[in-house]
Amino acid sequence: MSVFDVEIDGLRGGSADLAQYQGKAVLVVNVASKCGLTPQYSGLERLQERFAERGFTVLGVPCNQFMGQEPGTHEVIAEFCSTTYGVTFPLTAKVDVNGDDRHPLYQGLVGTADAEGHTGDIRWNFEKFLVAPDGTVAARFAPQAEPESDEVVAAIEKTLPAS
């Protein structure tokens, strides 16, 4: 089963339909509005703008498991992302990324190691997973990895579908 087979709700209701991203590179990021790393939304949006036409999308996954830093309703989250950071990339409904209620999307992601060899639980907001066009996890990046860092951009460019 690939990431694209997982069911998850969209932030504004209904299914987020991950199958629509099959054949694209997807950067899955657990996001939060009240975190010291929240300014990463700007870099994520720039990645979206830079690579969208080449078969790429960011997928923001709100999560409130880290010191309650995503407390808002779906409507509040959507408004914040749009007005504060101009976010155009898709956002899912708020989910748990760790623990007994870990969403199936994250069950399929957390086994991938980052550059330091970390696997398992998400450490904080803005941990990033790059999913290849075939649905396999191509890379994992620590929360502190800036979206536009050389490491992240190089991995995206390597993972983009052939044009």
Automatic annotation (TrEMBL):
UniProt KW Oxidoreductase keyword: yes
Top-level taxon in the UniProt lineage: Bacteria
Entry keywords, A to Z: Oxidoreductase, Peroxidase
Pfam families: GSHPx
Keyword Oxidoreductase: yes
Molecular function GO labels: glutathione peroxidase activity
InterPro entries, per database record: Glutathione_peroxidase, GPX_AS, Thioredoxin-like_sf
Family designation: Belongs to the glutathione peroxidase family.
Name of protein: Glutathione peroxidase
Source organism: Actinomadura algeriensis
Species lineage: Bacteria, Bacillati, Actinomycetota, Actinomycetes, Streptosporangiales
